[in-house]
Amino acid sequence: MAKAKSSFVCEDCGSEHSRWQGQCNACKEWNTITEIRVSAEPQDARSARYSGYAGETASKVETLQQISLTELPRISSGYLELDRVLGGGIVPGSAILIGGNPGAGKSTLLLQVMCGLASKMNALYVTGEESLQQVAMRANRLGLPTDKLKMLAETSVEKICDIAMKELPKVIVIDSIQVVHVGDIASAPGSVSQVRESAAFLTRFAKQYGVAIFLVGHVTKDGALAGPKVLEHCIDCSVMFDGDMDSRFRTIRSHKNRFGAVNELGVFAMTGKGLKEVSNPSAIFLSRDDEESPGSVVLVIWEGTRPLLVEVQALVDESQMPNPRRIAVGLDQNRLALLLAVLHRHAGLQMSDQDVFANVVGGVKVTETGSDLALLMAMVSSFKNQALPHNLIVFGEVGLAGEIRPVPSGQERIREAIKHGFTRALVPLGNVPKTPPKGMEIIGVKKLSQAIDSIFS
Length: 457
Ligand code: TYD
Ligand code: MG
Known about the structure:
Helix content: 25-40%
Number of strands: 21
Number of helices: 12
Strand order of the largest sheet: 6-5-7-8-4-9-10-11-12
Bound molecules: thymidine-5'-diphosphate, magnesium ion
Distance between the termini: 80 Å
CATH topology of the largest domain: Rossmann fold
Mean pLDDT: 86
CATH architecture of the largest domain: 3-Layer(aba) Sandwich
Radius of gyration: 26 Å
Strand content: 25-35%
């Protein structure tokens, strides 16, 4: 076997260095560089040697046109919400990372998917974290079909691949990437080098044999994929569970996808019988009191290919602290600070002596700037202690000059709001439809001050 050599890798950004140093040159983080042992033999040669594949694929140069476009059909996971996040189903030969906090439901979701898939194709579930009995008990309790799914308790990547070559599954789940290891690296499972090499090995295996591989990955306290961000380079698609683990609802989102758009949102509910799809999420995120209360407004966001109605709440209260707090849950904290400055400058509302809290109900994370206007209206409503009308929806981006900018898919957002019984919409002037839709009064605004005047008399 070739001699192993060392390499120094930053755990945060994945950049490589020739020697150990206190600070990473690339991302400027301190104490993130760790030594990893890599085999001197390149990754390709190793997996080729192992799989007996050497020499079979001679490298040749082709033009784009010559490359065969016959795509293998995508495999449906049996869950529309997951398929949409994956960009239309599982692509054969792809490596998909499923990340999330412990207890998010990664194992549950994949077990449900695999039990369903097993009736149509050869499927293998490799568990390194739970025992076979634990998985079997869970499957029984959830009432899943258990007769076809093949199970394996193993943590050595080489052995897993050896067995996979005999069993020839079309889909494999590795639960989780942090407990598997490759033989020729000395460090412990879960360390940067092990996770990185194991993922690279499995990804290569997936490509060579056209097997779709799901890798389960845990996240660290600060929400990054445990240890190495390096993992994201080699996989094809990364799906993360986000949202509040205390609530019943789990949202999944793709952060990287080589075969589809990112930022599609899938919604599941964790029930006593496992994860259930939520096909009409607006209905749940909107379950609110009939009573109007200050500081609350309904926002229409655009998630990938569909609109979603969520409630935004703000609480503006006199601060007892020298530095008033600005806290945003489910929204961007920096955006909140920026909007407060715009509010002061362009609408003359001073909140520098107030604590400001903002929250999106239901644990949804809102990342688009189309939420600006709604957040501002919620803050003004709480500040003035005046409730906004119950039948009102708001969307629009706010610029630094206090202008209200149009957002994509305005018509579809308005249509979705009509479907849910809303009758007034405060939107950017640029998003006002040419022919007014039936049953909806549309207020188009160009300036922040104009928006505030049109709602608060
Ligand atoms: P699990 O899939 O084991 O999480 P992960 O693999 O992401 O760590 O999910 C475990 C959580 O889900 C656990 O806290 C209990 C909850 N749960 C239910 O509420 N109902 C169920 O039917 C199942 C299987 C789990
Ligand atoms: Mg698990």
